[in-house]
Amino acid sequence: MSIKKAVDTLKKGGVIAFPTDTVYGIGADPFQSAAIQKLYTIKGRPKNKPIPILVGCYQDVENIAQNLPEFFFQLTTQFWPGALTLIVEAKGLPAPITAGGNTVGLRMPDHPIALKILQRFGPIATTSANKSDKAPATSKSEIEGELGNLVDLIIDGGTTNTGTSSTVIDLIKTPPKVLRQGEIHIEIETSQL
């Protein structure tokens, strides 16, 4: 496993597959439009569906998001790194990432390989490693079977722990809304806000 090779591939506009704490993801540089188009194509993802971004530190968040509510910091203090994606207001991201909107889903994965890549490269636009109508991949062999040579590099981190996707909460809405219950079960009570 070469973190340097992963970073180099991303810098060159390539798409990598790598393990996270939930399932394997495929990722690309969020600031290279051609790489993002490739990500949409590999996934077979509708162009009107934004792509979340994985971050490795809070500095990454400050560079790509703005007007964060206090509840964002409460949740990230408790659940990051971990299987929680938070939808917030985007800042300075290309239109393909946000599908022309003004929001972005952010997550900090709790996986040593993913975190090393993120800390060396920066934010990575990432979606689960599978075609849009298939179950997410939890191993290198599943990625090879489904995506074959469509990705430029597959980093083998063994089988991922859960096979369950992250929980997604929309913090743009008032009160915030759980869009998908995943690995982390969260009930939002308005008294928390």
Stated plainly, the CATH topology is called: DHBP synthase
N-C termini distance? 42 Å
Query: Assembly state here?
Result: single chain
The SS-based structural class is alpha/beta
| Unreliable residue stretches | none
Report the total helices. Answer: 7
Strand content: 15-25%
State the CATH architecture: Alpha-Beta Complex
**Count of the domains:** 1
**Main sheet?**
10 strands, mixed
Helix content: 25-40%
Average per-residue pLDDT, rounded, comes to: 92
CATH superfamily: DHBP synthase
Order of SSEs, N→C? HEEHEHEHEHEHEHEEE
| Total strand segments | 10
Q: What would you call the shape? A: globular
**C-alpha Rg, in Å?**
15 Å
The CATH class is identified as Alpha Beta
Topology record:
Layout: H1 3-11, E1 16-19, E2 24-28, H2 33-43, E3 53-54, H3 58-64, E4 65-66, H4 70-79, E5 84-90, H5 95-98, E6 103-107, H6 112-121, E7 124-128, H7 140-147, E8 153-154, E9 167-170, E10 177-180
Parallel strand pairs: 1-8, 3-6, 5-9
Antiparallel strand pairs: 1-2, 2-7, 3-7, 4-5, 5-6, 9-10
Helix pairs in contact: 1-6
Provide a descriptive summary of the structure in words.
By secondary structure, the chain is α/β, with parallel strands linked by helices. It has one domain (3-192): Alpha-Beta Complex (DHBP synthase), CATH 3.90.870. The protein has helices at 3-11, 33-43, 58-64, 70-79, 95-98, 112-121, 140-147, and strands at residues 16-19, 24-28, 53-54, 65-66, 84-90, 103-107, 124-128, 153-154, 167-170, 177-180. Strands 1, 2, 3, 4, 5, 6, 7, 8, 9 and 10 form a ten-stranded mixed sheet that branches. α1 packs across α6. The protein is globular. The model has no long low-confidence stretch (mean pLDDT 92).
